[in-house]
Specification:
Helix content is 53%, strand content 12%. It is α/β, with parallel strands linked by helices.
């Protein structure tokens, strides 16, 4: 199976790395130097100069971009994906996108005989590098079965959730819950530190109790208590995902006051911390506001 890969960002790069052993892999990135560096590190991988080139002659194309709008824009023009995708091929979109735009993209591709599966991922760069991501799929059973073969190099678990858009709905709600956990844990940990409780001891208790989460089990110990705060996932993208989840709830007539409140909080954080802030920087801001450091 020949695959084109578009989008060599923080998670796209290790995903593409897992695909590099496949014969005929082509990569494209908006910043061409990233694609060139990737190809240099992976003999046999070719660099596509345009989205059209990354799709030409391929059985499947994987997109991993910041937004569904970016994917839709990539289709357009004489050098766009649509100009290169052949009838019978499949586009597997691993972007953390929105269901409505995914359905529009799928309908557009169906007109030219190209299948579409929304397949956002969870697990971050570390699990991508291990080939252990969870893939949340939306599409027909036949198309998802094809997509499963496409994503196999970086997938640990593939779940078919429903029609096109279901994968992106699932990912948006998942990330919204992550955002809730990060905010609540940051506030709670700062409160405990101000109360004189050692942050490491507090985390040990939380992780043996009912308040534990990925944020407490992995993110705080590895990235906050160490003081490392690596820049791995932009807060702006998490805020985008919360917005997708909130909009979905509103569209379906579901009251979601917690999501609405968290969305407003993240909007404010995005404005104050900037577009390049990491998604854990709200905890750093809480430390600064309280005058404590969560280290242990």
């Amino acid at each position: 199976m020949k695959i084109g890969f578009a989008g060599l960002g923080a998670i796209g790069t290790p995903m593409a790395d897992r695909c590099a052993a496949r014969e005929g892999l082509a990569v494209w990135n908006r910043t061409a130097t990233k694609a060139e560096a990737f190809a240099t590190d992976h003999p046999g991988v070719s660099v596509a100069r345009t989205p059209r080139e990354v799709a030409a002659g391929m059985d499947a194309v994987i997109t991993c971009l910041p937004t569904s709008g970016d994917v839709a824009a990539l289709l357009e023009g004489s050098d766009g994906l649509l100009a290169g995708l052949a009838a019978g091929s499949i586009l597997v979109d691993c972007t953390s996108g929105d269901p409505a735009t995914s359905r529009e993209i799928a309908a557009r591709l169906a007109e030219v005989g190209v299948a579409f599966v929304d397949a956002p991922v969870s697990g971050g760069p570390p699990l991508a590098a291990k080939g252990a991501l969870t893939i949340m799929c939306g599409g027909s059973a036949e198309d998802v079965a094809r997509a499963e073969e496409v994503v196999a190099p970086f997938a640990g678990k593939v779940v078919h959730l429903g029609p096109v858009g279901a994968g992106h709905a699932m990912k948006a709600v998942n990330n919204a819950l992550l955002a809730v956990h990060i905010l609540a844990l940051g506030e709670g940990m700062v409160t405990l530190a101000k109360a004189g409780i050692d942050p490491r001891a507090a985390i040990d208790v939380l992780n043996a109790s009912s308040g534990r989460s990925l944020a407490s089990e992995v993110l705080i110990p590895e990235r906050v208590l160490t003081g490392l705060y690596p820049q791995l996932f932009r807060l702006a993208l998490l805020e985008k995902d919360i917005g997708i989840a909130e909009a979905l709830a509103r569209e379906l007539g579901v009251a979601a006051p917690v999501l609405a409140s968290v969305r407003e909080e993240y909007r404010g954080l995005r404005a104050s911390l900037g577009e390049q802030a990491d998604y854990l920087d709200p905890i750093r801001a809480a430390e600064a506001a309280a005058g404590v450091l969560l280290r242990g």
